[in-house]
Structures are given as structure tokens and as C-alpha cells.
Amino acid sequence: MTTLTPTQQVSQWLDAFETALRERDIPQVMTLFDDDCYWRDLVAFTWNLKTLEGKDEIRSMLDATLAEARPANWQLEGEASEADGVTEAWFTFETGVARGRGLLRLKDGRCWTLLTTMSELKDHPEPRGKHRPKGAEHGANKHRETWLEAHQREQEELGYTRQPYCVIIGGGQGGIGLAARLKQLDVPTIVIEKNPRAGDSWRNRYKSLCLHDPVWYDHMPYIPFPENWPVFAPKDKVGDWLEMYTKVMELNYWSSTECEGATYDEASGEWTVTVNRNGERVTLRPKQLVLATGMSGVPNVPHFAGAETFEGEQQHSSQHPGPDAYRGKKVVVVGANNSAHDICGALWEHDADVTMLQRSSTHIVKSDSLMEEVLGPLYSEEAVQNGITHDKADLIFASIPYKVLPDIQKPAFDAIRKRDADFYQRLEDAGFMLDFGADDSGLFLKYLRRGSGYYIDVGASDLVANGEVKLRSGVSIERINPRSVTLTDGSELPADLIVYATGYGSMNGWAARIISQEVADKVGKCWGLGSDTPKDPGPWEGELRNMWKPTQQEALWFHGGNLHQSRHYSQYLALQLKARQEDIPTPVYGLQEVHHLS
């Protein structure tokens, strides 16, 4: 008996899959799937971000979508590979209106995981490669309009004599990256940003802030960072890059503009968005509204008894200007995650007397260990040399169903725990409360489930372990006095400054502020998977709530996440918006239900 090569095995599977789909023979399709199977679809079949878990869910999805999707032309891309009993292969395909790309994993000849993604709309390709614009207009023309004149005219007209199709509220990296994708798809878009300059959301943070993720993970769409860009970019450098990017990508970016309110008219299918632009009130009437306020919502500022009597300063971490003014001062930082550690470290460097107040356990992972044990295979110089671009890495990461991800992540974080055992012991000896997530699955699952509860260590943990940053763990503030705080164990800490590094609420808090509480409740909680772990209540949802996909409020979208997520998922959000602009049918399969209001 001849043993099939991995490539032959995948080719046979794709041929059988295509035939069964073409003949609408769903029972035959299901014979190609393992009993333990997952199909993650990013827009191509479902016009949604949807993971189907098990044969019953896949069967139901195909029953509902196959007639409209009309999938065809499934082609193996490159050669398949095999490791540890899993055969893996890239492929391309088409639907009635789009082209797509995907990643298939087989076990014993049947599908274990399948990723299908929409990469472009057939009738609306991006103007790049063979579709690149000419730029110069050859020939003679008495009515010639230069690039600059056309650019200035668009900026003068859009929002005044001509309405945008889409308004994006929030001009940080998420809003900027999405606007760039929409620009390439010729979707008239305005980005609303309250700060005076693009990049100010980075510039305005505490002075020691740097990216904790490496450069290979953090590229923007279309323009990757240059090869000499630092691995961990400082905040002001990121801010300058975003300002440059906004200019060269020719975005309609309204800085010094604040959204005062928005309402949706179901009858006309139109938003009324009122903004204050440099003191001028402007009314915009887009068809689509995107809240790109980051994955974090409104700052969480706890209220403690006696706060109004405090004679020093109180700040949320988002307002903290940096350490310069606090040399020799006594500072209490409430919190023990990324911002708390960064702020404590910078204050210590400027000779402040700093106490970190840790109320609950924190997951700590050293930056170098994270790079080598977790991120390196996909996002590193070595990965690039192995042919794994950031776009390819994004798809590989996206191809792992969230249900399966904990089991894949645990071994890497077990290796980190062993590798850095002495480091963790020193922290625990200092009284620091550590965890590796509810199921020991580590950083990424904590981030996906709750967006908080961790610190990527770039040096501050040693200060805590050594006692140079003082630590009080397992306690909170009982009350605030004029010049001190009394803790729940009855002890007292003198304080000139209190920093609340206490995180943010759900993104739908911005919907409540800008639109209404009714709409915020209608769309429900943003972020989290329904893992039934701390701060991520069940039921299991299998995808991040409300992110980059249709919500229960018509024409309202949420966009955010870290730089990697904003880059990758902005493509799918842009395609969903473009399809609606062009009146392409977009029947949404599996619109998420709302289980939690905030």
C-alpha cells in the first residue's frame, strides 16, 4: 500500500471537500471532518467572525450559508507539512463575491481545524500590485487637477458638502489602521480624535512607557516598521510613526475634535453624529459608526471613603504624567499589572518612595522568556528568515480555535515557569501574589479573557522582589485620610500621591457615553470569550464579544485590541463595511446573543 505524502493527502481532501460543497452534499462534507473538529470563519461564509465547534455546529452553518456563499476553486498553496501526527497546509478559495485564504489541519486524514478568511472582494480589489494607480495623468487636459488639489478638495468637502460613509471615533492606532484599510477600499471615512495630533494618545502617557510587544508583532497595515526599528519602541517614537502614517496614507483625520453624541435612525439607516471640531459644531451623517477607542473602555477609578479629604494628588494611570514632579514624595500605586509596574519603576528611578498595593494575584512573565518560548516561532527575526511574515503569522495564530488555545499555550508557560523558577521564588518570598491564569494557560488567555491581570516584566519585578519598590499585597484601601491611606488590615501608609492603576471598563462604556445606555445594553459587554474564569463570565462564546463583527445594534462596530489584533482584524472589518457600502448581500450567520450588559 502506497503511503500518501502530506501534499497528496491534502490535495485529495480539498478535492473531496470542493466536490461535496459544490453538490451541496452536507452529509458527505461531514465525513471529511474528525469528531473533534473546529471551523473558524472570518467573514467568508458567515459575514461574521465565527468559530463552529463540532460537526453539529458546522452542519448548521453550512445549511444556512452554502447557497449564498457558493464556494469554489479550492487550491493548495505550496506544499503541505506533517508534524506530531498533524498535517498542515495553506490553501486559497473563492466565494460568489470574494477571494479567500485558509489553513487546514488534518488528523488521520480528516479535518481537525479549518480556517477560512475573506481576503478581498472580487469586484473591489485594493489598488496595489497590478491594480496600482498610475498617479501621473499623461496627455493634455485644460481641467487637470493635481494630486494636491484633489487631496485638499476632499478634505474641504468630506463632512460638509459630502457625507462620509463611515465615521471612526478614536484616532489611536486602531482607528488609524482601520481608516487606512477603508481608504484603500475607497470607503469615504472620517476619523474623530480629541487630541491635537495623531499619536498623542501615546505621547500623553507616562514618560517611561514602551511597547512590551516586539516589533515583529506590531506592524501597521501596508507600511511595516523599517528593519532598524527598535524591538520595543518608546511611546513617543510610536506617536511620531502614527502621525507620519496618518499623513502618508492620506487619511481624513479630524484632530482636536470631540464627539458630543450620536443617534441612529432605523428608518433611514443613518447615524447623526454631532462633533465639536476646534470649537465648530459639525453634524455628520454616516451610514456606519465604528468605536475605535482601544480594547479598554472608560477608566475604572475606585471610590474610597475620604478621597475628597486628601490633600495630595490622585490620578488614574491614564492621567499620570510621569515621575519628574515626585522626587522624594511618598507614592501609593493601587494595582499590580502592566501600568502599575511601569509607573512604580519610573518613580523609583526618580527617587520617589513607592509602595505598590496588590489587591489580587498577577501573572508575571519576563519579556525575554515570552519572546523565546511563546512569540519567537511566529514573531521574531528568525521567523521572518523562515518565511513567516507578520501577515502569515497572524493567520497561523488566528487558525487556532480559542477552545484549543489553552492546551497549546500551557506547555510554553510551563517551560517559562521552570526556566524562571528562581525569579518567581524571589517574588513570592517578597509577598507578591502570582498566578499563571485560572488554568495555568498564561498571558494570552488572560488577555483574551479579561484584558488585564498581567505584567510583561521589563525590570520592575526585580525592584519589587528586592524591596526597592515596597509591596503590600492582599489588602486594599479602607479609607483615605488628608495625608495618608488606611489599609484594610488597619495599617497606615503616608502618601503625597495616589495613582489608581486600576484598569478600564468594557468598551461599551463609550457607547453609553456617546450614544445611550440603552444602546450600550443592547450590544452588551465587549471583549472576553465566556470562559467562566475571573472577569470573563460564561456562557462560552468562542469569539471575542462584539469585536470587529456585527453587533445587536445595526451599523455599530467595535474595533480595538493590541497592535497585532488591530492590524489583522481591521482587514475583516473593512471588508464587511465595503460590502455594505456596495450593497453586496451580507447575511450574517450566528449574530451573537447578549449575556452580559457591561
From TrEMBL:
<dbReference type="InterPro" id="IPR037401">
    <property type="entry name" value="SnoaL-like"/>
</dbReference>
<keyword id="KW-0560">Oxidoreductase</keyword>
<dbReference type="InterPro" id="IPR036188">
    <property type="entry name" value="FAD/NAD-bd_sf"/>
</dbReference>
<protein>
    <submittedName>
        <fullName>FAD-dependent oxidoreductase</fullName>
    </submittedName>
</protein>
<dbReference type="InterPro" id="IPR050982">
    <property type="entry name" value="Auxin_biosynth/cation_transpt"/>
</dbReference>
<dbReference type="InterPro" id="IPR032710">
    <property type="entry name" value="NTF2-like_dom_sf"/>
</dbReference>
<feature type="domain" description="SnoaL-like">
    <location>
        <begin position="16"/>
        <end position="111"/>
    </location>
</feature>
<dbReference type="Pfam" id="PF13738">
    <property type="entry name" value="Pyr_redox_3"/>
</dbReference>
<dbReference type="Pfam" id="PF12680">
    <property type="entry name" value="SnoaL_2"/>
</dbReference>
<dbReference type="GO" id="GO:0004497">
    <property type="term" value="F:monooxygenase activity"/>
</dbReference>
<feature type="region of interest" description="Disordered">
    <location>
        <begin position="122"/>
        <end position="141"/>
    </location>
</feature>
<dbReference type="GO" id="GO:0050660">
    <property type="term" value="F:flavin adenine dinucleotide binding"/>
</dbReference>
